[in-house]
Amino acid sequence: MVLNYIWIAFFLIAFVVAMGRLVIGGDTAVFTEIINATFSSAKTGFEISLGLTGILSLWLGIMKIGERGGLIQAFARLAAPVFSKLFPTLPKDHPATGSIFMNFSANLLGLDNAATPMGLKAMRELQELNKDKTSASDAMIMFLCINASGLTLIPITIMMYRAQMGAANPSDVFLPIMLATFTSTLVAILAVCVRQRIRIFQRNLLLFFGGAALFIGGLVWLFRSMEQEEISLYSTLFANTLLFTIICGFIVSGMRKRINVYDAFIEGAKEGFQTAITIIPYLVAILVGIGVFRASGAMDFLIDGVRMGVAAVGLDTKFVEALPTILMKPLSGSGARGMMLDAMNTYGADSFVGRLASIVQGSCDTTFYVVALYYGSVGIRNTRYTIQCSLLADLAGAIAAIAMAYLFF
User: Fold this and answer.
1) Which residues form the Nucleoside transporter/FeoB GTPase Gate domain (predicted)?
2) Which residue among 154, 205, 381, 385 is least enclosed by CB atoms within 10 Å?
3) Whole-model pTM?
């Protein structure tokens, strides 16, 4: 229901702003730009779905082998002490626990191509436990909100973009991104725990968050002693080696169980193909709404208003130039990436704005895209409080990103 209201708001706000540009400013090209945006956004939505088809088929095929071979159940048992607290409605050792664990692990390593198929598989398994097939369950909401909060430890892609844009030290945003995304994820978990009345101060959860903080501190210490080229090299090598090891491990587990590995892969790949077809309308709908909102000039109008408000109360307005990236991030990953690159190109990769845009890009995820993709794959229409909690996490990540930028740079 919330997504329905937001989608309608995109079009109504865009219409009002466009009419203002036409009547007051005499901009006769505004509606042409909007219509072109609808076509290009619809094409982008289809192309994303088409691009996901091969990836989904591959990874859901591999996941089917792991499920038949027993490794997914092993991952479920490994994650059970923490997940049993965050997902209390999940039965013990349910396959969804293993899929969620694999999705989170891939996200932490920045392996988007592997994380999405694993996440979609987790959603299908959660849907099997869902009593109301059109409304998001508590477990789905927790899973989606954590995904939408960012959950990335090693922002390899952002460091590569900064290197391409001529940054003197592309990895100087590594620590601020890690702290900002940790804040975003923590707020997402806390917000959902409050709504679902999950006790936060439980031994397993406190140990998990304490261990996560120590692990992040260790990574910070390790990476601060390395050159940027070494960080990029070792991070990429570790992530890809681990990924291929998982693939081989799944195949070996299938061989040990004496299953037909090839047939298991084909069965999972067919499920991946069907999932890719299912999500096309949902992606097209949300991307068209976002495209219309941006093409109408509503985004620029909002940014100008914020700049005037910040200046009126006497606060520093340097961060406002990075607002396009901040506001675009929950709406569109490619749009936010374009805004980040534009900020670095306009102000310089090593400028305050360029660094802040990079931190924002790595501190949270694209809420509306994630919601449309994951819920659309299983036909969920009532998202309940998913978007509210996810946007709260995005806001926390954005505030943390701004704070980190002022603190470090």
Assistant:
1) 51-160, 277-380
2) 381
3) 0.76
**392 and 364 in contact (C-beta within 8 Å)?**
no
Residues 6+ apart with CB under 8 A from 58: 117, 269, 272
In a 10 Å sphere around its CB, with 0-12 CB exposed, 13-18 middle and 19+ buried, how is residue 397 labelled? buried
Q: How many Cα atoms sit within 13 Å of 190 on the Cβ side?
A: 12
- What's the pLDDT score for residue 143? 94
Render pLDDT for 47-84 as a digit per residue (tens, 0 to 9).
877 777 887 788 778 878 887 888 777 777 777 788 88
Would you list the DSSP string of 237-268? HHHHHHHHHHHHHHHHHHHHTT--HHHHHHHH
Distance CA 119, CA 219 (A): 26
- Helix, strand, coil shares of the chain, percent, nearest 5, are 80, 0, 20
The number of C-alpha atoms within 13 Å of 129 and in the hemisphere containing its C-beta is: 18
**Number of helical H runs and strand E runs in the chain:** 17, 0
- Matching residue, tokens 């969920």: 380
Q: What is the C-alpha to C-alpha distance for residues 188 and 249, in angstroms, rounded to an integer?
A: 32
What 3-state DSSP class applies to 54?
helix
Contacts of residue 380, Cβ cutoff 8 Å, sequence gap at least 6: 127, 133, 134, 135, 136, 140
Instruction: Give every CB contact of residue 307 below 8 A, 6+ residues apart in sequence.
Output: 317, 320, 323
Q: Which amino acid is at 257?
A: K
Q: Which two tokens stand for residue 71?
A: 């490794």
Residue with tokens 């219509």: 35
